[in-house]
Structure formats: structure tokens, C-alpha cells
Design brief:
Helices cover 27% and strands 23% of the residues. It is built from 14 helices and 27 strands. Strands 12-25-26-27-23-24-13 form a seven-stranded mixed β-sheet. Helix 2 packs across helix 11, helix 7 packs across helix 8 and helix 11 (314-324) packs across helix 12. The protein is elongated and about 100 Å long. The protein binds adenosine-5'-triphosphate (ATP) and magnesium ion (MG). Adenosine-5'-triphosphate binds at residues 44-46, 54-55, 57-58, 241-242, 271-272, 279-282.
Length: 572
């Protein structure tokens, strides 16, 4: 883990949770001396999209284990599918893993770097009589494979002589055949109860440009062939992957055993699902390509880059991954848990400020026209070391439009004619009257008076029920603020049977852009913090990727209300 870049990482692991099944397996292996006491994991993303929070779970697990057991963790780009991959994705993956706080040292690998050796392994399998070149096309191969209830049929090309297979495989490599015309298959068992063992394709012809090897290769290894051998060549001890690979494990073991090479242990765990979002690069790509979001890093996206722009911190994501745990059976995590984690973190670190999202002007009639007072406000009551700041107060201020009602219901402890409220860090004011637009009747300004005896922090305390945030009209800056809701309107948008078209289940109100907000000058002039709590409104972060010198943009990371904390409390 990078030592100091993201504050004290050790601090976030104060709560010692009981160890999960993978930790237990590794402890046992260390005890029995399996793998000579080594622990070596890897995180193997395919660079065909940006990483999402599901990947973060895998990253925290793999890198976390290597740290816990004094081992190593490789970062490996699993780039065997040239048509979908790109160097831009490689860079974003490196950036995201690093941002999460993990360090692969000098162990950044690419499966494409192994293409020569993988080819040699395939040749060796052919020589062992364990692989053959098949002329069936992909569709025929599928037909011959059989089903879960019916055994497969052997290809008529299955018993080709070794020499012929070697010759054809070499000619596949030279590009002599068209895509789909031939493939190399492992010769295992067409009657196996496990479909993955029915002579799986291990090499296919692809005439595509690879982002690293260009046009050098006309054939590319399949995931199942490349992955186990890459693990083996990298001396990985524990190859941790998601549950859908459980049925591939016999093949993983078969390939390594037949070739007589070192065999790591594959261990499967349940992938992360979160409600109201999708964790699949393919579907996230659809959102990007369909312009349903502004890009991979749209703050509504469950990508690591989206969460970062939204204001999530690496600490909060690691905390989340710790809390969800690691299990063998699949489940869905509720979004409020993720929100709970970021709230806990931002509560500690974010500077408290005042901002008004929908401004309504207030004139304090008995406050001198030319006077400006400097009031004192703490930056974070949770952390006195964050100090205090001065906020200017004068005759004209802005308050939140919905903090005034002319004819309010009971229990509306905000501004209404004849009633008093406290202005945070300032005075008690009384609403005298509302000024309306003569044409529309809309309230355009409030006239108030203040009580000079009620300055905050002076010990004089007259109780009023409501406390409002505000900004000084003369000492504020305009800003744009974006508020977010779930990207999807239903809890399981990833369910392909129910929602084949992802764009049909998008939440039309997932973002609200407020273009005429007012923020405290301290934020505009002295942006030392990235994360803020706007009093009463939530946690926000400055969005440097779209802000300009004329228009500062802030994203709401999360609201203040924490339904998860309440659930936890109730349950306790
Ligand atoms: P996607 O379906 O989003 O494309 P993937 O599994 O195809 O995901 P990879 O790039 O192959 O994406 O994933 C790299 C690693 O991250 C794999 O080991 C994979 O098992 C793990 N991973 C992917 N999604 C999740 C998830 N939702 N929860 C936990 N681990 C995941
Ligand atoms: Mg994949």
C-alpha cells in the first residue's frame, strides 16, 4: 500500500473483523507449508472498460491479502481480446488502483507479453495429443457441445494426427485462415458433465489490431487457457476470482496438470452486486456509448472514476469493501451502505461551509448599510484542528428559497412573517414581510430585522426553534451545484430477463443542475479543501474536471440523512 498518500491507512482498519474463508484458507496453507509459505495474488482486469466498485472489492481483497500476509500482488492486464481493448483503459485502470491506495511495485504485467510462451504451451499440448485443430465453425462447435442434459458429440476433426495439427496451428498463426474457419481445442471429454470440459476452444483466429502487439498475431488465446498459465508463470499462489469461474476450475487445473507446470490454487468468491445500479463493464459501456451519461466518470456511474468525481474517497471505498465482507454465496448490497461509508469518512474530514442552492434575498432593515462584521465559525466541530474562519455578515444576505413560507403548516420553524429564526454563526432575525413581484406574485425578497443582542458565541441565548444557513450577498460567489439521485429507477436494472434494454430503466431525474447558487467566499478564493459539508444540505465536492474560472461546479456526494445508520441502530 502506498504509505502516506491517502493519510493513515492503518486508521481505517481499527475494527478487527473476523477472518473470512479466503483468509482462513491462506492461514491453513501457511501452516501446512503449501507454496513454501508464500502468498502471491493478482488482480487481472481486462482493459476493455473502466473499473467499477465491484472491481474495487476484488482489488481490496487481492491487494489486502498480500499486505496482510506479507506477500505480493500483481496487476495484470488480461488483454487477450484485441477488438475491445484499449491503452486508455489500461491507463485508467492503473490510475484507479493507485488511487485506491494500492501498489503493484514493479509487477505490472500484460497477458500479451506472454503470447509467445502461450503459443509454445499450445504447441506442447498438441504434441502431447491433448489439443487439436478443429475445422468446425463456432456455431457448429456450439451445436456439437450438447447441453446440460445431453452429452456432446465429437468433432470429425478430433483425431487428426499430431503432425497435421502442428502444421495447421502454425498456419493459423501465420494468418492463412479466415476468422472462424479453424480453432484449437483442448482434447478432454465430450461427455463430461461439465460443459467447460467438452473440448473447449483454447485459441481462435482474430484478424484484429491489438493495442500492444499490433498485427503480429492472427490467433489469440482464450481466457481459460491464458489465465491459468499466466497465473502459473507469475508464480501466483492463490488465484482469487468470482463465482462464475467455479465451473472453470477443473479446466484451470487440467491445463496446468497436462503441461506439468506449477499450479496455483483457484478460489472463488461472490461478486459484488449493489441495488439501483449495474456492475458490468459491458452495460456501463452501453450507457457511455448511448450518451445516457456524460462519460465513464459521470458522477452517477458506479465506476471508481465516477465515484471519485462524485466525492468518494479511497478510504470510504476500502471501508465499504471491508464491511461487505467476502462470502461464497451471492447477494445484493444496498446502496445506503455505500453512502453510510462515505458519510462517516466525510463527517471526519470535510470542512463545514455555507452555501445557498436556491437563493432568496433578505434585507436586514435595521442593520447599517455600510457595515460589515466578521463572524467566527469553526471549520469542523468533529475536528478542532481544522481551525476556524471568518465569515462576513452585512445588511443583505441570501437564504434558501424554501426556508420561507408565507402560509406555513404547523412545525415549520423557518422564515414566515412575524416569526424569528437564528442565522447560523450570526444573529436572530425576524421576518417582517415579503416583497412580491407585482406581476407574478412570486416572493422576490424578504424584509427582516435583527436583534443585536443575540450574536452567536456571546453567551446570550434566547431560544428559537429554527437555525438557517445563509451567505452574505456582498461576499459570495456564484456556483453551479449538481444534485444526484440513483441512475436507475428500479432496484435490479441489471436483470437481463426483466430489463433487456438498460436505457428503459434509467431514472429521468438522476441529476438536477442548479445554476444560480451562492457559496461562501472562503470556498471560492481559498479552495484548500476538496470535500465540504454544506450546512443542512449534504456533503459536496469541487468538480475540477468541469469547473472554469467563471463557473465553479460542485457535486453533491451524498445527503446528510443516514438511513443506514438508523437501520443499524434499530437492529442493534
Ligand atoms: P465485468 O462483467 O464488469 O466486465 P469482468 O469480470 O468481466 O467484469 P474483469 O476485468 O475480467 O471484468 O475483472 C477483473 C477482476 O475483477 C476479476 O477477477 C473479476 O472476477 C473481478 N470482478 C469483476 N466484477 C466484480 C464484482 N462485481 N465483484 C467482485 N469482483 C469482481
Ligand atoms: Mg471479464
Amino acid at each position: 500500500m502506498k504509505s502516506n498518500k491517502n493519510n493513515d491507512i492503518e486508521d481505517t482498519n481499527e475494527v478487527v473483523s473476523p477472518s473470512h474463508f479466503i483468509q482462513n484458507i491462506i492461514k491453513d496453507d501457511l501452516e501446512t507449508g503449501k507454496f513454501e509459505g508464500r502468498v502471491h495474488t493478482r488482480f487481472p482486469p481486462e482493459p476493455n472498460g473502466y473499473l467499477h466498485i465491484g472491481h474495487a472489492k476484488s482489488i481490496c481483497l487481492n491487494f489486502g491479502i498480500s499486505i496482510e500476509f506479507n506477500g505480493l500482488c500483481n496487476l495484470r492486464m488480461d488483454d487477450t481480446n484485441p477488438s475491445k481493448e484499449d491503452t486508455a483503459f489500461v491507463e485508467s485502470i492503473k490510475n484507479d488502483v493507485e488511487w485506491l491506495g494500492f501498489d503493484w511495485g514493479d509487477r505490472l504485467f500484460f497477458t500479451s507479453d506472454y503470447f509467445d510462451r502461450l503459443y509454445q504451451f499450445a504447441v506442447q499440448l498438441i504434441k502431447l495429443g491433448k489439443a487439436y485443430v478443429d475445422d468446425l465453425n463456432p456455431e457448429e462447435i456450439r451445436e456439437y457441445r450438447g447441453t446440460l442434459t445431453e452429452p456432446g458429440k465429437e468433432s470429425p476433426f478430433r483425431n487428426r494426427a499430431v503432425e497435421e495439427n502442428l502444421d495447421l496451428f502454425e498456419r493459423m498463426k501465420k494468418g492463412e485462415f479466415e476468422e472462424g474457419a479453424k480453432s484449437l481445442r483442448a482434447k478432454i471429454d465430450m461427455h463430461s458433465g461439465n460443459l467447460n470440459m467438452r473440448d473447449p476452444v483454447i485459441y481462435r483466429i482474430l484478424k484484429a489490431n491489438h493495442h500492444r502487439t499490433g498485427r503480429t498475431w492472427s490467433i489469440y488465446p482464450m481466457y481459460d487457457f491464458a489465465h491459468c498459465l499466466s497465473d502459473s508463470m507469475e508464480n501466483v499462489t492463490h488465484s482469487i476470482c468470482t463465482l462464475e469461474f467455479e465451473d472453470h476450475r477443473p479446466l484451470y487445473d487440467w491445463i496446468l496438470n497436462e503441461l506439468g507446470v506449477y499450479r496455483p490454487q483457484q478460489i472463488e468468491f461472490a461478486r459484488l452486486n449493489i441495488d439501483y445500479t449495474v456492475l458490468s463493464k459491458r452495460k456501463l459501456l452501453q450507457l457511455v456509448q448511448g450518451n445516457h451519461v456524460s462519460g465513464w466518470d459521470d458522477p452517477r456511474m458506479p465506476t471508481i472514476s465516477g465515484l471519485r468525481r462524485r466525492g468518494y474517497t479511497p478510504e470510504s471505498i476500502r471501508d465499504f469493501c471491508e464491511r461487505i465482507g467476502v462470502a461464497k454465496s451471492a447477494g445484493t448490497v444496498e446502496m445506503p451502505l455505500l453512502e453510510h461509508c462515505i458519510r462517516e469518512d466525510l463527517n471526519k474530514r470535510s470542512a463545514r461551509v455555507m452555501a445557498v442552492l436556491r437563493p432568496l434575498k433578505v434585507v436586514i432593515e435595521n442593520y447599517p448599510e455600510e457595515k460589515t462584521e466578521e463572524l467566527e465559525a469553526e471549520n469542523n466541530p468533529e475536528d478542532p484542528s481544522m481551525g476556524k474562519r471568518k465569515i462576513p455578515f452585512c445588511r443583505e444576505i441570501f437564504v434558501e428559497r424554501d426556508d420561507f413560507m408565507e402560509d406555513p403548516p404547523k412545525k415549520f420553524f423557518r422564515l414566515t412573517p412575524g416569526k424569528e429564526v437564528r442565522l447560523k454563526h450570526a444573529y436572530i432575525i425576524k421576518c417582517e414581510r415579503a416583497i412580491k413581484d407585482p406581476q407574478t406574485g412570486e416572493v422576490v425578497e424578504l424584509r427582516c430585522s435583527y436583534d443585536p443582542e443575540t450574536k452567536s458565541g456571546t453567551g446570550v441565548s434566547r431560544k428559537v426553534k429554527g437555525t438557517l444557513h445563509w451567505v452574505s450577498a456582498k461576499h459570495c460567489e456564484k456556483a453551479e451545484v449538481r444534485l444526484y439521485e440513483n441512475l436507475f429507477s428500479i432496484s435490479n436494472p441489471g436483470d437481463e430477463k426483466k430489463n433487456p434494454e438498460i436505457k428503459e430503466v434509467l431514472n429521468p431525474d438522476s441529476v438536477e443542475v442548479l445554476g444560480d447558487c451562492r457559496i461562501e467566499l472562503s470556498m471560492a478564493t481559498n479552495r484548500i479543501h476538496n470535500h465540504y459539508q454544506f450546512l443542512r444540505l449534504g456533503y459536496f465536492c469541487f468538480d475540477s474536471s468541469i469547473s472554469t474560472s467563471d463557473c465553479l461546479v460542485f457535486n453533491r456526494t451524498v445527503t446528510l440523512r443516514d438511513s443506514w445508520a438508523k437501520i443499524v441502530k434499530k437492529g442493534a
